[in-house]
Amino acid sequence: MGITLEQAQAAIQAAHQKSLELGVKMNIAVVDAGANLVAFARMDDAWLGSLDISIKKAKTARFFDMPTGDLGKASQPGGSLFNIEVSNGGLITFPGGLPITDSTGRVVGAIGVSGDSVENDHTVAEAGRVAVADR
Amino acid sequence: MGITLEQAQAAIQAAHQKSLELGVKMNIAVVDAGANLVAFARMDDAWLGSLDISIKKAKTARFFDMPTGDLGKASQPGGSLFNIEVSNGGLITFPGGLPITDSTGRVVGAIGVSGDSVENDHTVAEAGRVAVADR
Amino acid sequence: MGITLEQAQAAIQAAHQKSLELGVKMNIAVVDAGANLVAFARMDDAWLGSLDISIKKAKTARFFDMPTGDLGKASQPGGSLFNIEVSNGGLITFPGGLPITDSTGRVVGAIGVSGDSVENDHTVAEAGRVAVADR
Amino acid sequence: MGITLEQAQAAIQAAHQKSLELGVKMNIAVVDAGANLVAFARMDDAWLGSLDISIKKAKTARFFDMPTGDLGKASQPGGSLFNIEVSNGGLITFPGGLPITDSTGRVVGAIGVSGDSVENDHTVAEAGRVAVADR
């Protein structure tokens, strides 16, 4: 259903490589078009609490086909989607989750990264996303 | 896997003693490096709702290797980690949870305390933490 | 509500001592009359999966004021309580959980032990139970 | 905390390779000594329901440091551990989960495989286990 294991592993590998370049320890998750886990990697000594967050970021990005940080803008107090995070068994709406599209622009899955600042989480997720989109 | 039962019980005992000094009734939980419970004590007539909170504080402190209150600063509305609390089956991000390091500085577990003001929760947790760190 | 922390810790200590005598590594949990955790200890290198089981045994014993093994006799296929284990967030109905009564015979809590054979689990739980009942 | 990502990915790769040889489509999960996920791969068109089962098999094998099928022998009706499966958020006690030891014999994690017959699940898990044990 969408992304293949080969593509997912390519995304994991690219994100892992980017993490090494940045000197950060990440949890990296890739889900398919059904928002179910396809591949996952936790780097040695990465935060344990980021395991669940990385998977939830990937799911959130696919649930709404947008970067997790975009959803977070609307979930703040007073926002139109306030506290949407309690749905779906828990959403994560800060940066680090991105939909993955194939070469035709169709969403085939998503990647979620957690383990450092949200900026670095996003940068690593982007490296993984591009590895599939460019193939 | 990290903290021993003997160390965990020493932390509980020190935190209990500090609670008696302060005249507060606490729930005190200690988890190991895998964030799994090692020792627990609920003082007579302590808030029942604080049982789960004390365990979640200990887990949260180990999940991210930082005081729970530090995480809470980033999870406020508009913060970079808004609503991170919905992850990992529920995080607690106000003070009262602290990582426990051994004499070499390695994180071997964490302590979580709940039952009074967050200031007192933190003070009691610190007493427990020190009992292990100083051994 | 029922058992005091002092009593619960006495039960834990007696059960721990019995475990050392038997050469087994146990998870030991004590709940109060409300079936909420009062004290807990996990011995070094005890099975990780027995953490939850010890707490569930203690809760189960208090939920029905009987040894967990007794309940298990009625929960077998064809029995009157078949698959009762799925209730209450999960019951454990094999031996190792015992109600704790005070000197007047009133149930004040329960103890649950897990980490070895069900016979040894029961023996250790009994050592903890007696430490309170005899006081 | 036990197994490294490099070891876990070696286990996944070996299990994947064995699955291709057998012509089966598997979900393959590896957890560390704390029973937390380290690496995961779902082969294209593998059963979706086996995703959760593979992770639960890996956790179960580490929770009790034994092959999941061994636990299942004791959890049958009339057995000493009847319905243990309701604990720990759900255990899987049929074959396909194996503890992973390092070269010194220490348990560093576990592998869980699901997607075909339990015999094939076990065979694939064994291929993954050996890839780490032999390094």
What's the short version?
Chain A is an alpha+beta fold. Helices cover 41% and strands 19% of the residues of chain A.
Order of helices and strands of chain A: HEEHHEEH
CATH architecture of chain A: 2-Layer Sandwich
Fraction of residues in β-strands of chain A: 15-25%
Cα separation of the termini of chain A: 18 Å
| Envelope shape of chain A | globular
* CATH topology heading of chain A: Beta-Lactamase
Note poorly predicted spans of chain A: none
Radius of gyration of chain A: 14 Å
Task: Please count the beta strands of chain A (DSSP E, at least 2 residues each).
Answer: 4
Biggest sheet of chain A: strands, sense, closure?
4 strands, antiparallel
Pfam families (chains A, B, C, D): HbpS-like
Organism (chains A, B, C, D): Hymenobacter nivis
Protein name (chains A, B, C, D): Glycolate utilization protein
Task: Please provide a written account of the structure.
The structure is a homotetramer of 135-residue chains. Chain A is α+β, with helices and mostly antiparallel strands. Chain A contains four helices and four strands, in the order αββααββα. In chain A, strands 2-1-4-3 form a four-stranded antiparallel sheet. In chain A, a hairpin with a 4-residue loop joins strand 1 (27-32) and strand 2. In chain A, helix 1 crosses helix 4 (118-133). The two termini of chain A are 18 Å apart. The interface between A and B is medium-sized, with 21 and 19 residues.
Topology of this structure?
Four copies of one chain form a homotetramer.
Chain A: H1 5-22, E1 27-32, E2 37-42, H2 50-64, H3 68-74, E3 97-101, E4 107-114, H4 118-133
Antiparallel strand pairs in A: 1-2, 1-4, 3-4
Helix pairs in contact in A: 1-4
Organism (chains A, B, C, D): Hymenobacter nivis
Protein name (chains A, B, C, D): Glycolate utilization protein
Pfam family, one (chains A, B, C, D): HbpS-like
